[in-house]
Write a structure and sequence with these properties.
By secondary structure, the protein is an alpha+beta fold. Among the domains are: 127 residues, Rossmann fold, CATH 3.40.50; 59 residues, 2-Layer Sandwich (Dna Ligase, domain 1), CATH 3.30.1490. 33% of the residues lie in helices and 25% in strands. It is built from eleven helices and 14 strands. The strands form three sheets. It has a six-stranded antiparallel beta sheet with strand order 13-12-9-10-11-14. It has a four-stranded parallel beta sheet with strand order 3-2-1-4, covered by helices on one side. Strand 1, helix 1 and strand 2 form a beta-alpha-beta unit. Helix 1 crosses helix 10. The longest helix has 16 residues. The chain is globular, with a radius of gyration of 20 Å.
Length: 349
């Protein structure tokens, strides 16, 4: 019998809350490959991220500096962890941390830690702030938007686009505003949480569809699985969804990957109008929280990313199961105050 390959993989995004990070779903996908003997290292920012305490999913957790601390602080912390754990691969799962991880990816490679991330240029090109011009450049349908820095600019934008409009934070969150007062409230809320600028986007009515995909960095699509949301939370997050059979959606993902030579996982958030036009609302530069559905449908994107981060050749997936449904659920995880105190005091558990 062939010996299992031992791997130590570090993963961020352990906040399995009502607006969950992708980390737990990514880990579940990695653990599905029974040919690997995997030790999972959680990388957390907060002491109450549920994944820290899910010991059947995460073997050990270390806290890392907030993205605002910069790439050097992150590198130093990861090197400390690497000395203890001998990491093989690191998979970041938050938009706000990607820039730092990309900046240090070559340094990580130098000590034997693999990553599989887009370049800084790729990351910046699809940013919400640049999305409209990105769409025009690559012949993709994107709603018109305006980037604003002052709340006073909202009125002229709403006069231009009509109502409602979508008011978006530069990293996360979006609110549909039907009145100027609602738009102003959303502006202040997003500014306080994520800073400036604020993106105001033309509202597109239609069916919400998401595509989780994986590019090899050379223009080839390793995997693409489209999903329609069946149940949406008040934060706009999919709490249930179903895989779709639609060649045009797969072709859209392939066109994006071919045009950008995207390296790594990403998600296209699409609004398909009544006349079947697929407007790209956002391009998230990492796996979505529902990524485990791709595993259930037969295309294990987290496992494929790990293999590519290790330098292995991965053949593109060709089929997936249509009609696979995911339903997210919550349960109460019971732990001891000593565990929480240990994370808070020492930054590891």
């Amino acid at each position: 019998m062939k010996a299992k390959k031992k791997l130590c993989i570090a993963v961020t995004g352990l906040n399995a809350i009502d607006s969950p990070g992708p980390g737990i779903a990514v880990i579940r996908g990695i653990r599905e490959n029974k040919q690997h003997d995997v030790r999972i290292i959680g990388l957390s920012y907060e002491s109450l991220e549920p994944g820290i305490y899910m010991h059947d999913v995460v073997d050990k957790t270390y806290q890392i500096p907030y993205p605002s601390a910069g790439s050097e602080a992150l590198l130093n912390r990861l090197l400390q962890i690497h000395e203890i754990e001998k990491l093989d691969v690191v998979i970041p799962n938050f938009d706000a941390e990607l820039q730092n991880f990309i900046k240090i990816s070559e340094s990580l490679k130098g000590v034997g830690i693999g990553t599989f991330l887009p370049s800084l240029a790729q990351l910046e090109a699809r940013d919400k702030v640049n999305l409209y011009s990105f769409g025009k450049k690559h012949n993709l349908l994107v709603p018109a938007d305006r980037i604003i820095y002052k709340v006073d600019d909202l009125k002229s934008v709403m006069d231009q686009f009509g109502v409602p409009v979508v008011v978006k934070g530069k990293y996360y969150e979006a609110f549909v505003a039907h009145t100027l007062e609602q738009a102003q409230k959303a502006f202040y809320k997003l500014q306080a949480k994520w800073g400036l600028p604020i993106i105001v986007q033309q509202f597109i009515s239609g069916t919400e569809i998401n595509i989780a995909a994986l590019g090899d960095g050379k223009g080839n699509t390793i995997s693409a699985v489209p999903m329609r949301k069946l149940y949406i939370t008040d934060k706009g997050k999919a709490w249930a969804g179903i895989t779709l059979e639609d060649k045009s959606l797969i072709d859209l993902a392939k066109h994006f990957i071919s045009a950008t030579k995207w390296k790594g996982g990403f998600e296209l958030e699409i609004m398909r109008t009544a006349d079947n036009k697929p407007y790209i609302m956002e391009i998230n530069p990492r796996f979505p929280a529902w990524i485990f559905l791709t595993v259930g449908a037969g295309q294990n994107q987290p496992d494929a990313l790990v293999k590519m981060a290790l330098g292995e050749d991965v053949k593109p997936y060709t089929d997936y199961e249509v009609g696979k449904i995911f339903i997210r659920y919550s349960w109460d995880l019971i732990t001891d105050i000593e565990a929480f105190q240990k994370v808070s005091a020492f930054g590891e558990l």
